[in-house]
Structures are given as C-alpha cells and as structure tokens.
Amino acid sequence: SHGKENDKNFIKNAGKGDVYAGSTDAITGDQLYTTGSHLDALSYSFSTSFDSFSTTLNSLIDKGVGSLSSSVASIDGEVSKLQQNALQWNKSISAYDASSVTGKPAKITQVADGRVELNSSDAITGAQLFSLSTVSKDNLVNVASSMNLSLSTIQDSVDSSSASLSSQYDTLSKDISNNF
C-alpha cells in the first residue's frame, strides 16, 4: 500500500509487473496502453473481417436468391408452356379439348387400347376401330356370300318347282283336251 486514503499519488518509474491469472503485481501505463492498442487492433481486424464476411455473405445470398428467382421463373415458364400445350379440360363443352393449342381439331396419339365391352367408357384407338371394321367387313362379305348362295338355292328350287308345275300343267292340259 502506498500513500494515504483519499490522497492521489503517482508511482513513477515502476517496473513492468507480471500479467497472468492470479498475479498481484502492479502493471505500468505502457503495459495497459499496449493491451488497449492490441484490443483496438483486434477490434478493427474483427470489424473488418466481419464486414468482409457480411459483404461476402450478402453477395452469396443475393446470388442465391437471384438464382432461385431465375429458377422459379424458369419453372413458371415451363409450367405455362405445359399448360398451353397440354390436353386441357374445356368447361364450356364439358370435355377434354384437343383443339386448345391450335384452335383446330387435333389428333391424340400414343393412347393405350381401351376396353371394348358393354358399359365401357374407355377411348378406343384407331387400331381397335380398324380391327373392328376389318372383322365387320369380313363378316359382311361372308353373310353376303351366304345370302347369295341361299338365294341361288331358292332360285334353283323356284325354277325347279316352276318347271315341274309347268310340266304338270302341260300334262293336265293334254289329259283334259284328250278327254273332251
């Protein structure tokens, strides 16, 4: 202890005290100034590094947000194209409308074969319809051939019956003429 209480005294030309945890040495103004200068330099370095980090982070965020915005805009564009080119439901006609893109009737391709059966509401393909028309045509040709054969047989029977009746009429006419 040095001096009296409430008196202001200076200690000059003191040696540098040891600075460590638990030290009871007095420290000099030079030691305190050096510590303060180091803290100022550290604070400046930290502040500069933080500003640089903050600028870099903001730049990355801006680029990321910009990139994300561009990606979202690109996705929106693709969805819009898809909506424009996709087969859309048309409320006014209560059906899917293939003319929605061009304004003209358009074909729908690569459709799976639908069920062709009683109460089916599946769409059928051109191949299914062609198969049906071929089968129907072949069946109609067979029916027509069968009908022609039947008509020919009937005609032959009529001709034969007519010839027989004509012969019987002639015979009957001769018998009647001979008896009178």
TrEMBL record:
One Gene Ontology term, aspect cellular component: outer membrane
InterPro entries assigned to the protein according to its UniProt record, in alphabetical order: Coiled_stalk_dom
Residues forming coiled coils: none
Pfam families in the cross-refs: YadA_stalk
Boundaries of every Trimeric autotransporter adhesin YadA-like stalk domain copy: 12-41, 107-145
Protein name per UniProt: Hemagglutinin
Organism (species): Snodgrassella alvi SCGC AB-598-J21
